[in-house]
Write a structure and sequence with these properties.
The complex is a heterodimer of chains A (303) and B (318). Chain A has 303 residues and is mainly α. Helix content of chain A is 69%, strand content 0%. Chain A has one domain: Orthogonal Bundle (MetI-like fold). A two-stranded antiparallel ribbon of chain B has the order 1-2. In chain B, strand 1 and strand 2 form a beta hairpin. Chains A and B meet through helix 1, helix 3, helix 4, helix 5 and helix 7 of A and helix 1, helix 2, helix 5, helix 6 and helix 7 of B.
Chain lengths: 303, 318
């Protein structure tokens, strides 16, 4: 990205000091953003006996132990949480991308009769949201409460992402489509064989938007799912870390008999849980940087 | 060209000058594949966004275990407007949104201005990669991180203030600081990422303006003040107005993870109130009424924001 450089070639001492202050401020920001995560990582790998009282400023493990990780990754609640999250995120992302792409393609045809009406229907949903309770009763009426599908299907097509894709499709050169039409391709063939290959970067962007959204989603899962074995990772994490319900991970039996999990410092377990939950985001972060940046700058205002 | 004209020319192009009924059949013949592709998405919108509007009629009903519900008109709204808790959560919502506009909103602008001054592309990329990260973490994770950072016994913040001789504070459960915890966690999450939009605007500024300023002998600050900032004012205005449009929201996903029994008086907002009385205590109709109040005023705010923004900057909410 070529940002304009607002600086002359020759620099006075004052300018050098200014520059040093600017760089220092930004680096301080980097530290503020990353240090807490590094600290949790260090805590999760520390020897559990040395975790109590370990300073929040440390970014290096005290001692070294994989106990926390072994315990968390073998814990049924965590394992189920991971599987639930992967299933919900993958399914919802797939449905979201397919639904959004198909709908955006139709809406991007300038002469489609009824285009304006459909657009208006979509825009109304951005402006007017009747709230949590009507959504909840709709779920109940459809018999989806306590089912994975409640979370997967809930607002499966996002209005903002739809608008981004429509704008992208609108810019596909008309000649290309007309050429395909002359070759005898029907609209479905045009969409799958001409449009989709062209739209790969845009689709990747939308897919990442959905992926991050669904992985991080917790509120709807929290209210629609009752059965703990269906909880995605974020809800398990919330129970344990935010609500402070240590039984969520430690378990009543363990706590009572003080065995296994209960012997490990809670702070270390919480740190490990947080890191596990953000690992997938960290894993796809290079992709996020590549696609999100462009998608956000070209499309809607907020990612 | 209006959409009617567009449609007419489109159909005319396909159908030529033919009778009305045949034009319709030809239109269907041409467009049905597009409607088939549109259908699943449209269906999702109708189900997930329009059925709830129908369900919201519950705000005007007495919910009965055996349907049908009883129509009670504005009774629940009267109860709501007579309840002191409602005014408390409304005030909290407005205060938190105001604090965020005052203290969160300017930060990404400053970050973008700072980033733009960095000459080394590598250094800038590194800083960007690091400060964008928090935007992609869930509020559950961020709350977990803040619980750790703010821990009175060994959290980073109390370690630092302790170094200067301050007594440890339990920020998460201290009513006085809970609103500020929301402000700072929001800055932590979005200061980096939101700067991207301003940076994009800065990149769009005409280079010759900088060259002209340099010829006039402008220094770094004069260039920022006279070229960069005027160049991003439209973006600032658009985002400011957008933020105003969300004034009644104050971010449910954030607040619900920082809310506890101690700080309820300070950070219980409209959405968390609706959630609590609706899904925890089961006062469905009252909760729906409160939700509708927020929805209607939120809609007025967003629409005003959209039209004001469109008027001033040519760019709307969508």
């Amino acid at each position: 990205m070529a940002a304009p450089r607002g600086t002359a070639i020759r620099r006075t001492p004052l300018e050098r000091i200014e520059y040093a202050i600017i760089v220092t401020t930004l680096l301080a920001m980097v530290v503020v953003m990353l240090q807490p995560i590094l600290n949790l990582l260090a805590v999760s790998f520390s020897d559990p006996s040395q975790v109590a009282g370990k300073s929040g400023l440390d970014i290096w493990p005290s001692g070294f132990s994989l106990d926390v990780w072994a315990l968390l990754l073998q814990h049924p609640n965590v394992q189920r949480g991971i599987l639930n999250s992967i299933f919900i995120t993958a399914t919802a992302t797939f449905i979201g991308v397919v639904g959004t792409a198909l709908m955006a393609w139709g809406l991007s045809r300038p002469n489609l009769p009824g285009r304006r009406v459909i657009f208006l229907l979509v825009l109304v949903t951005i402006v007017f949201e009747p709230g949590i309770i009507p959504d909840y009763f709709l779920m109940k009426r459809m018999g989806l409460l306590d089912s994975y599908w409640s979370v997967i299907l809930y607002k499966a097509v996002n209005a903002w992402y739809l608008i981004i894709l429509v704008r992208f499709f609108e810019e596909i050169p008309e000649e290309l489509l007309e050429a395909a039409e002359l070759d005898g391709a029907n609209p479905f063939q045009i969409f799958f064989q001409v449009v989709l290959p062209l739209a790969k970067p845009a689709l990747a962007t939308i897919a990442l938007f959905y992926l991050v959204f669904h992985w991080n989603e917790f509120f709807r899962a929290m209210i629609y799912l009752n059965d703990q074995t269906k909880y995605p990772l974020q809800v398990v994490l919330r129970q344990f870390v935010v609500e402070g319900d240590k039984l969520a991970i430690v378990g009543a039996d363990n706590a009572a008999n003080n065995i296994g999990v209960a012997q490990i410092n809670l702070k270390a377990l919480k740190a490990g849980m947080i890191i596990i939950t953000i690992l997938p985001i960290l894993a796809i972060y290079p992709l996020i940087l590549k696609f999100f940046t462009k998608g956000t700058m070209s499309g809607a205002l907020k990612g | 060209m209006s959409s009617v004209e567009q449609n007419a020319t489109a159909i005319a192009r396909v159908a030529g000058n033919v009778p009305r009924s045949q034009r319709f059949t030809n239109g269907v013949r041409r467009w049905w594949p597009y409607y088939v592709m549109l259908a699943p998405g449209l269906l999702f919108f109708l189900i997930w966004h329009y059925f709830p509007i129908w369900e919201a009629k519950m705000a005007f009903e007495q919910v009965r275990i055996i349907p049908p519900n009883l129509w009670v008109g504005l009774k629940h709204f009267q109860t709501l407007f007579a309840s002191p808790v409602f005014y408390q959560v409304l005030a909290n919502t407005l205060i938190i949104s105001t604090l965020k506009i005052l203290f969160v909103f300017p930060v990404p602008i400053i970050v973008a201005l700072l980033l733009n001054e960095v000459r080394s592309g590598r250094l800038r990329k590194f800083v960007q990669s690091a400060i964008y990260l928090p935007h992609f973490l869930s509020w559950v994770v961020i709350a977990g991180i803040f619980i750790a950072i703010l821990s009175p016994s060994d959290g980073a913040v109390n370690q630092i203030t302790g170094f200067f001789g301050a007594k440890p504070t339990a920020f998460m459960t201290d009513g006085n600081s809970s609103r500020w915890v929301l402000v700072f966690s929001e800055i932590w999450r979005s200061a980096g990422w939101d700067s991207l939009l301003y940076l994009a605007a800065i990149i769009g500024i005409d280079q010759s303006l900088y060259e002209a300023a340099e010829l006039d002998g402008a220094n770094r600050w004069q260039k920022v003040w006279h070229v960069t900032i005027p160049g991003i004012v439209p973006t600032i205005a658009t985002l400011f107005i957008l933020n105003m449009g969300m004034f009644l929201s104050a971010d449910l996903n954030q607040v619900i993870n920082f809310l506890n029994d101690v700080n309820r008086g300070q950070i219980d907002i409209l959405d968390t109130y609706v959630y609590r009385i609706g899904l925890r205590t089961g006062e469905y109709s009252l909760a729906t009424a409160a939700g509708l109040f927020k929805a209607v005023f939120g809609m007025i705010l967003i629409l005003s924001a959209h039209f004001v923004s469109k008027r001033l900057t040519g760019k709307g909410v969508w």
